[in-house]
Amino acid sequence: MSDAPIIPQDYTYGLKVVQIEDLRVARGMTRRPSSSCRHKKLVYDDKERRIWCSDCESEVEPFDAFVGLCEVFNAGANKLNRLLREAREAEKFQARSRAVKILDEAWRSKTMAPLCPHCHEAILPEDVAGGVAQASKQLVVASRKRGKRDKS
């Protein structure tokens, strides 16, 4: 006898049937054909437990209907997140104090400019765009009190 292994032949066990759908799935394609209708107007029938499109009047797979719902909710959530981001960004640039609001309103005038309350010089937005010098509030208040006493 020979020591060669016995190799079974495919034809001895019958014909080998290859499903085309299995090959399509293996290549990343789907078994189900896609329709040209995007199924925007879905009707969910509770009694018959089916979903169908009122535009093309064809039945819609439950998975496709679920994906459609998820896309709508995802788009809505993305829009809400974008609006929230924009609102938070706008909130950062909002003037909060009364003095800043009054100064901003005065600067919006096309013909007038606000004046410094002490030297009566015009204050333009360009004057404070690069920042402003600062002083201690306590020292300024004390200096003003001293100035009022000296004038009296």
Q: Can you offer a commentary on this structure?
A:
There is one protein chain. It is built from 5 helices and 2 strands, in the order αββαααα. It has 152 residues and is mainly alpha-helical. The chain has 2 domains: 10-92, no CATH class; 95-124, no CATH class. A hairpin with a 4-residue loop joins strand 1 and strand 2 (50-53).
% residues in beta strands: 5-15%
Q: For the report, how would you describe the main beta sheet? A: 2 strands, antiparallel
Looking across the biggest beta sheet, what order are the strands in?
A: 1-2
Number of helices: 5
Write the layout of secondary structure elements.
Layout: H1 20-26, E1 42-45, E2 50-53, H2 62-92, H3 98-107, H4 125-128, H5 137-151
Antiparallel strand pairs: 1-2
Question: Tags for this entry?
Answer:
44% helix; two-stranded antiparallel ribbon; mainly alpha; 2 strands; 5% strand; 152 residues
State the gist of this model.
It is built from five helices and two strands; from the N terminus they run αββαααα. The chain is mainly alpha-helical.
